[in-house]
Amino acid sequence: MLQPDGSWRWYFDTQQQSLALVMGEMLFVTPYRSKVLGRVPESEEAFDLQDLEIYSLVGTQLEKSTLRLNDAQKTQLALNVCAVQRFHKPIMPKSWFFSRHGDAGYHHQVAWLSSAEQQARVWVVEDVRSSCLCMNLEPRFELGNGKHLKQFELIRVVPDCLLPCVEQQERLKRA
C-alpha cells in the first residue's frame, strides 16, 4: 500500500464530477459523485490524522483478512473507505434485498451479503448496533428488481444480513 504524506489533498474534481485525492504526482478519483456526498469540499483539504488512522486501520484489517488483493487494490479500498468516512452522506438501511441469518457477522471487516440474485463480498465500513454500512467489493452486485450496486457503492443493512467471509488461503503443494 502507498504510504500517505503531508502533500495528500482531497478536493472535488469538477471535470470527473467526483471526489478526488491528489497524492503528490498521482491522482486518485473516487467513485463518489456530489449527490452521495454529505459535504463537497469547496477547496483542497488535507488528508488529516483521522484519514491516516482510518487508512492504517483498513490496511491492518486487510493484512488479517483472507481477501486476495494486490497493493494497488488494497490502497484503492482503503482510500475509498477514508472518503466514505469523511464525506459520504448518511444512508438508511435497505435490508429487504438480502437474506437473514442466525449466525450473522463478519471476519476482519469482510462479509457476504446474499440477495435473491447473487452473493457478494462486502467491506463493513461502519458497525453500529442496529445497522452496518457496507461497501460492495464485487464489480457488480445484482440486488433484484433491476437494481444493482457498482463496485465500492454503499448499502446499509441490519447486522443479521451479514455472513462472515472466511475464504481458504491457497494450500501449498507438497513435494
From TrEMBL:
GO biological process assignments = cell division
Pfam short name (any one): ZapC_C
Segments forming domain Cell-division protein ZapC C-terminal: 90-167
* InterPro entries with a match to the protein in the record: ZapC_C, ZapC_N
Instruction: Tell me which residues make up the Cell-division protein ZapC N-terminal domain.
Output: 1-89
Keywords, A to Z? Answer: Cell cycle, Cell division
Q: Is Cell cycle among this UniProt entry's keywords?
A: yes
**Residues annotated as signal peptide:** none
Can you tell which superkingdom this protein's organism belongs to? Bacteria
Mind telling me what this protein is named? Cell division protein ZapC
Task: Look up and give the organism this protein is from.
Answer: Bowmanella dokdonensis
UniProt lineage: Bacteria, Pseudomonadati, Pseudomonadota, Gammaproteobacteria, Alteromonadales
